[in-house]
What does this fold into?
Amino acid sequence: MTDVVLNININGCDIHVAQGVSVAAAIAMAGSAVTRRSVRGAARAPLCGMGVCQECRVTIDGRMHQLSCQTLCADGMRVTTGEVQP
Ligand code: FES
It folds into this structure.
């Protein structure tokens, strides 16, 4: 069996992840803990890991409010974190 490696871009940095890795995990692997910011600028990070808390929202391929814990990485995906996502 061959491991499939995907190339994704997080905040302008290219990283390689294995197939089946969530975007939230990829963000952590890239060394970032912040996924979004509240309307007052407070840093937010994944909390529940199961699609309930909404704290892991990021922009994926230009679409805001995507749950990074519920989204698997796809080759060529572009992820932006740290934005205000009310
Ligand atoms: S970590 Fe809670 S919804 Fe994603």
